[in-house]
Design a protein that fits this description.
CATH topology: Glycerol-3-phosphate (1)-acyltransferase
CATH class: Alpha Beta
Strand order of the largest sheet: 1-7-6-2-5-3-4
Shape: globular
Oligomer: single chain
Strand content: 5-15%
Structural class: alpha/beta
Number of strands: 7
Number of domains: 1
Number of helices: 8
CATH architecture: 3-Layer(aba) Sandwich
């Protein structure tokens, strides 16, 4: 029987390069296909209908994209902890941010999520039209962002935010910004934490976009503590950061810890 190709073999290395191209290219194609529709629909549809459609497309589009990564690119995602979270009412959902795939994984399971996004992403030709249709929130003006998030939460949405403000640069965690706490205080909603674990820092802050991954890639999102609605933004920011640091104090989750059947 012919020996199975293993990591380190030149054929496996070639597959890793191909998987990188397929993974990045398929996301770009999904966004490009949605871009003209999102631009037109935002002008034609009533705001409430456009928001619903925009968020549904994000959820289903990201779920399909994770399916592509699972099927063609040797990626495995254990997102079962997120099932049902979208039906648990308004809350701020706060997660650590090791990779560009974090928002994709979280939003693939939440039908009424509002992301707090960097202004440059909202203005990006690939992502901006869809994000604006879904009424995502820009982070370039803190007061406006907090008020927008409070409005969305009062309408039943769930706000997804990364308290570090950007992908982690110094693992396991960078210092937290106060925006997460300010939103929760103003809206008087609980904060549900998500812990993202990974087998590789692929697409992290220090990983160049065109550097190939070391396959297979495994990701898991698990539910952390749910904090009651805070009253003091400064104190809660310190408490939230301390909690995440305690949860992430150990080594990166080893591949053996992931269920063999884990998938998108």
């Amino acid at each position: 029987m012919k020996e199975r190709v293993r990591p380190g073999h030149w054929l496996w290395t070639a597959y890793e390069h191909l998987a990188m191209v397929v993974g990045l290219g398929s996301l770009a194609l999904i966004c490009l296909a949605w871009l003209p529709l999102a631009l037109v629909l935002r002008r034609l549809l009533p705001p409430a209908t456009g928001v619903w459609l925009g968020r549904q497309f994000v959820m289903r589009g990201f779920r399909g994209y994770l399916g592509i990564l699972s099927t063609l690119c040797a990626c495995r995602f254990d997102l079962s902890a997120l099932d049902g979270l979208g039906q648990q009412g308004p809350m701020v959902i706060a997660a650590n941010h090791p990779s560009l795939l974090d928002a994709v994984m979280i939003n693939s399971r939440l039908p009424n999520a509002v992301c707090v996004m960097k202004a440059e992403l909202m203005d990006n030709p690939l992502f901006g039209a869809g994000a604006r249709l879904a009424r995502y929130v820009r982070n370039d003006n803190l007061l406006n962002a907090v008020l927008r998030c409070r409005s969305e939460l009062r309408q039943g949405a769930q706000v997804v935010i990364f308290p570090e403000g950007t992908r982690t640069h110094h693992f396991p965690l960078d210092p937290f910004l106060r925006s997460t706490a300010l939103i929760a205080v103003r809206a008087a909603v609980p904060v549900q934490t998500l812990i993202i674990e990974f087998s590789s820092p692929y697409l992290g802050k220090r990983w160049p976009l065109w550097r190939k991954p070391s396959l297979p890639l495994l990701f898991r999102v698990r539910l952390g503590r749910r904090f009651e609605a805070p009253r003091d933004a400064r104190a809660f920011t310190a408490e939230l950061e301390a909690y995440f640091r305690a949860e992430l104090a150990g080594p990166t989750t080893p591949m053996a810890a992931f269920p063999a059947a884990a998938s998108a």
